[in-house]
Design a protein that fits this description.
It is a single chain. It is globular and about 50 Å long. The longest helix is centred in the N-terminal third of the chain and has 18 residues. By secondary structure, the protein is mainly β. Helix 1 runs parallel beside helix 3 and helix 2 crosses helix 3. A hairpin with a 6-residue loop joins strand 8 and strand 9. The chain has 2 domains: 306 residues, Lipocalin; 63 residues, no CATH class.
Amino acid sequence: MSTMNPGPEDQLTRTLTARAEAFTDHGGEHLELSSVLARAGEIRRGRRMRASIVMAAAVLAVAVPVGITALDGGPDHRAPIATSPTPSPTPSADSHALTRIPLGPPPNHSYVDEGVLHNTDGSTRRLPPTTYLRLSGITPYLGGYLIGNGDTATVTLLDGNNKVVKSGPGSANFVTTPDGVETAYVMNGTLYSNPGSGMASGDGRVGPVAFGGRPVGYLQQGLLYETGRTTAAGTPQLAVTGGGSVGHDLDSLFMLNATDQINDRVAGVIVGGHGRVISVKTHRILWTSAEWQPIAFDLTGKYISAIDNAPHGPTKVAILDAATGRVIASADLASKGLHFGGGSFDDSGNLLVVAGQNDGDSAAMLRLSPAGRLDRATRVVRGLMHSDNETPLVIPAGPQ
């Protein structure tokens, strides 16, 4: 099971990494993603993360000539098509968009609300300010928590008393097994999976990965991860712990989003933004969708969450049948004056979605049930335009 799934920040990082590498492969000057993001960070100080995502994309767009930006030609290396920027429509703002959605019971999953971790048993825990002000991900780990900071691009392990055990460069790509027993992450250029049999040491150290390397998720044969390098076709180079292999089953995916360990399936995106789910067990493509991009499986592997393949970013969220891609339930966020900010399944099979108002000043966590009911699972957090807390609502990875 993945973390709060690939939200805008994670998708941006992976997309920029691929674009920067492609730019270099086509004769451009080598671009370090960290430099691109750092420059974007300088520009966006005091702004919300949503604005910085757009700014980071703009920085790379300036660095990459227009004739090289359309690099979706695939492995046949056809000449790229020059494209002109298309202006994004200005979304309508509604200051009451979230409060109009009925408030239901609290989430059946832990969540973080402006630095306070709310557990399903009703207990709370305040995180250290140095960790939650740019919180990009969190998951329980070894009696404490792994925490990702989206501003400094670091991962920190806190013990049960909020004391720092270790910290280093990394992103909040935390993935767990469906039972929550094993967790994988990257810190200081090293991939960890703990606890795990056959690992090199007691801390779950798997081995080094290149910049951009990350865990994708667990399969029956082991942990599937990206090494941080790309293939000749421009797709992520993959590996499996314990000497396993996925062969060429996943060669068509240029973005890998999640795994289903129970049924040995992998979800991702192919060229054109089309979603795809592949069975590693049967070596077959189960389904491909031009409309939906799969994001994360639920704990049972029955459902998978998805966002629509819209030209200017996701406008809808959905629960799909993981085996067929059939839509079980969906919600049109854009029609309600909202935008998508990440999400994950709770322990009951409902989809929790962090939604922000298009006025840019409020956010809340919504809940979409397989029956199609949409309600609000948390309070509305306001005043974000004037807050230093860019990620007020975060859903921890793994079963809670």
